[in-house]
Amino acid sequence: MITAASREIAQALHAAVQRADVPQTVHIDATYRCGLACKHCYLDNRTTWPEMTGAELRALVDQLADFGVWKLLWSGGELFERADMDELLAYAAQRGFAQTLKSHAGLIDAARARHLAALRIAQVHVSVYSLRPAVHDAFTQRAGSLAATCAGIAELRAAGVAVRVSCVVQSNTIDEMEALFACFSAQGCNVVFGNDIFRNHLGNEDLDVLAMPPADFQRAEEKRLRLTPAPPRPPVSERQGQGACSAGRSRAYVTPDGAVWPCAQFPMALGNLREQSFAAIWRGSVERQQIVAWKNRDRTSCTSCGGSGHCAYCPGEAFKQTGDFRKAPVQFHEQTRYRMAAYEAATGQPLGPEVWQGVPSGGPRLPRPERFVFPIYRPKKGQGARVQPPAK
């Protein structure tokens, strides 16, 4: 549970990291390969994207340790598709990193779970879409995936590894939210729900069809607030000196072939590790400096919005939808209104007409923009050394 004291500590740590101009967390996707094909996956290429070698990733770990980064988030694709992943995690542990993993858990057996426990992995994030195999497996497009994922979760918990179960809610699983929460809470897992669908790295609108209708979105949000209560953020008017999110400020993302982006949802090229060191990219990127310079006070239309504490403004998603990370899509306003209505229903606390009147009306998602303020980085596929998949 997040308390006022823990929130203050986190805010103080975040401020210290920003003053030092060092990211607190670096998210590394070791591979985009994955045995699943989840319908909402924002990766546009899970098969031929080049990957850094083990030696390159160990060198990156050394660079990050020397730079002062202390948290790593390893993900994919499915990170355990790499045959050397266990060794890479062990190397990072030796360098003193706090490590979190994202995995479908289907490749985690008892031995691997014990290995992760020995490395003191902070937490493993695992996605579960339904407790019904027919529904979950249809979403991952792989038969048997729910059984494999649940078996992996059980092994992790048996080994004493903390697990966060992330449930992306769809219209046909809203009525399962209580059962999902009860099932995995009983196993000692932290359970979180999400109902946002992000566009893929190309900014295409292909995944927009998965976005829930307004009534379902609001109902799912209301249930989420009842199951996992959380107060709204302070309004933007009280956070004017901060940024909209941690992307490019206290967080960075590294693609499998070494490109550095602000975060996984923000496909803007800051540089590539095969050409520059991480420190040189972080401190020298003109694009990143423009992100850092953009504060909440510059979101002039947001500072007067009564619903800004309920808004999940995502610069990366704004970038993909409007071509400019500083320009909110109308969809953001629409979803804010749904979240506000859900908050009133879940808490019984009316926000008041003066708050509602200040929130712009929404609208449908826009087509992919023709141009982006900063070009989306597209790798030269096949130009990097490729790690071979594990032997079958």
What does this structure look like?
The protein is built from 14 helices and nine strands. It is an alpha/beta fold. Strands 6-5-4-3-2-1-7-8-9 form a nine-stranded mixed sheet, covered by helices on one side. Helix 4 crosses helix 6 and helix 8 (214-227) packs across helix 13 (330-347). The longest helix is centred in the last third of the chain and has 18 residues, at 330-347. The protein is globular.
User: Average pLDDT, to the nearest integer?
Assistant: 90
Distance between the amino and carboxyl termini: 42 Å
| Helical run tally | 14
In terms of DSSP E residues, the strand content is 5-15%
Mind summarizing the main beta sheet?
A: 9 strands, mixed
* Helix share bin: 25-40%
Say how many strands there are.
Answer: 9
Structural class: alpha/beta
Low-pLDDT runs of 5+ residues are: 377-392
Strand order, largest beta sheet: 6-5-4-3-2-1-7-8-9
Q: Radius of gyration over alpha carbons? A: 21 Å
In sequence order, what are the helices and strands, one letter per element?
HEHEHEHEHHEHEHEEEHHHHHH
